[in-house]
Structure formats: C-alpha cells, structure tokens
Amino acid sequence: MTILVTGANGMIGSHLVRGLLDAGYEVIGVGRVGGESREDRYRFYRLDLADRERLRKVADGNRVDRFIHLAALAHTEGETDLSWERYRRVNADCARNVFEVAGDRPVLFISTVDVYGFYDGTKPVNAQTPIRPVSRYAKSKALAEAACQKLKHFTIFRLAPVYTETVRRDIQKRYYLSYPNIAYVVGGGSAFEVLSVQTAVSAMVRWCAEEPENDIRIIRDRQPLWTPDAIRQERAGGNARIVLWFPRWAVRCGYAVLRSVLGENEKTYLLNKAVHPLRSE
Q1: How would you class 219 by CB atoms within 10 Å of its CB: exposed for 0-12, middle for 13-18, buried for 19 or more?
Q2: 66-69 and 2-6: which strand pairing?
Q3: What's the N-to-C CA distance of the chain in angstroms?
Q4: Rounded to an integer, what distance in angstroms lies between the CA atom of residue 208 and that of residue 158?
Q5: What is d(CA 69, CA 4) in angstroms, rounded to the nearest whole number?
Q6: What is the pLDDT along the chain (281 residues), one digit of tens a residue?
Q7: Closest CA to 70 of 108, 123, 115
Q8: C-alpha to C-alpha distance for 256 and 275, rounded to whole angstroms
Q9: Which residues are within 8 A (CB) of 119 and not within 5 positions of it... i.e. 6 or more apart?
Q10: CA dist 179 to 11, 78, 173, 254, 277, Å?
Q11: CA distances (Å), 115 to each of 112, 131, 144, 181, 259, in order?
Q12: Strand order in 176-178's β-sheet?
C-alpha cells in the first residue's frame, strides 16, 4: 500500500514518514520545503498544495492508496502573515484540494482539539460535542473538517497539543509565563491533555490498516500532563527558576471578570485553557 503524507518534513510528518516506512508501507511525501528525493520506498516531492493539478499528477502517478493530510499553518513562530485569509487559504482551501484529488480513496485528516473552543470544565467532550472554534487556526481547521466529512471514506483525528522530547513548546505554554525562567502553578496544580508524537504516529500508522469508518477521534496520551511534575523536571534542567503560585479561586474570578469585559475572543480563550483545561472522554 502506498500512503501520501502532506507536510512530510514537519515535526509530526517527519516522524510519521519513518513510522510508515518501518511498518512496510510505500510513502510519498509532499511539502513546500526540502529538496526532492527518492530512496527505496520513499519519495519526496516539493510542491504547494495550492497547485491541485500537480498534486493530482503526483498522487496518480505513484498510485497512492491513502492520504494523510498533516500540512497546515499552525505554529506562528517566524510567520509574518497571520491574517484570516492566509489561514483559510492554507488550512481550508488547500485541504479541499487534497480531498478533491483523493476522490474515493480514504483520507485521514489531522485536526485539533482547539475546534471545541471555550470549555466550562464540566462535561468531557467527545466526537459528538458541538464545536465552537475561536482562534483563526481552529476556525480554518473546522472549515476543513466540514469539507472532509463530505468524502466517501474519511477519518478525522483531533489531536491534543503535540510534543517531542526535544520540542515541547506546545505543552510548555501551559505552565510558563515566560520561558524558560518563570513558571506558574494554579492551586495544587493542573492536568492538561497532551500528545506525544510517538502516540500520534502509532495511531496514524494503525489507521492505514483499518477500514475507514467515517468517524472523528480525539487523540491524546492516556496520562495527562500534571503541571507540578512538569515544573520539577524543568527545574532539574536549570529552567523554571521562579515559580509563581496563584489561588485557583482568584484565577477563576479574574478570568470571569475579563471575559465579561472583553467577551469571547482569542485572548480570553487562552485564559480559558489555563482556567478550565480541556477534558475528553
């Protein structure tokens, strides 16, 4: 079986390519950066997903059986254009190009738990929970999800924040006010759902051997990140030299006031993540 992976040179994509090759698959990688290459069971093509016809030629010319669509505008570091138009173009319009090229072939679309938006800390979310995306990133992913669900064979993975042992920026945001020196703890500590890249890759590789069920799944580690444990590890490495403690009641009161004044927007959404960490079934 031949699997096409978009965003093959990204943080998750590079690990996924290796995982698929180790599992015995032929892999076609595509991405906007990197030189084209061929080695054994792996071929990489440099292309922009906005070029639908070139993507079609690559997919059909290599007799691709399945698609895993990872490529997205997610991390903002080093990016100069973070307009809604760019998010929509990269994350939604290009996704539609991938889906159109895939046709009746199975597609695994990689989305995010951010599509749930504001969370009240009560009932855990699941695949049937209505989504209310707030950030531009999440809104563009929600548009792509809607397009994906029109396919004949699809699966959507909503990933918790992904980390590797060397790249932990997505989870460090949960307990740092200013990396790497100033960390914080709310109350006795907070539990955040996160996802190791190894767990993410394992789930994607398993999908390649499954019959698509046209379903949506939340993918996360079994054990959540407990902030006091994370901070102890950081301090052992010379970071988190200052640890601030905030009473939970004070944080919740402050959040409630700011949300009532500012309304629901991207800034209060970031506070919502700290006050009410997402829980999934």
Answers
A1: buried
A2: parallel
A3: 32
A4: 17
A5: 8
A6: 999 999 999 999 999 999 999 999 999 999 988 888 888 899 999 999 999 999 999 999 999 999 999 999 987 666 788 899 999 999 999 999 999 999 999 999 999 999 999 999 999 999 999 999 999 999 999 999 999 999 999 999 999 999 998 888 888 989 999 999 999 999 999 999 999 999 999 999 999 999 989 999 999 999 999 999 999 999 999 999 999 999 999 999 999 999 999 999 989 999 999 999 999 99
A7: 108
A8: 10
A9: 125, 272, 273, 276, 277, 278, 279
A10: 20, 17, 8, 23, 20
A11: 6, 6, 11, 31, 19
A12: 176-178, 182-186, 242-246
Q: Structure tokens of 190?
A: 């907070």
pTM: 0.95
CATH H-level superfamily of 2-275: NAD(P)-binding Rossmann-like Domain (3.40.50.720)
- 226, two tokens: 């407990």
Q: d(Cα 265, Cα 281) in Å, to the nearest integer?
A: 26
**Tokens read off for 223:** 């054990």
Structure tokens at 217: 């799944």
CA gap 54, 99 in Å, rounded: 14
Domain boundaries, the chain: 2-275
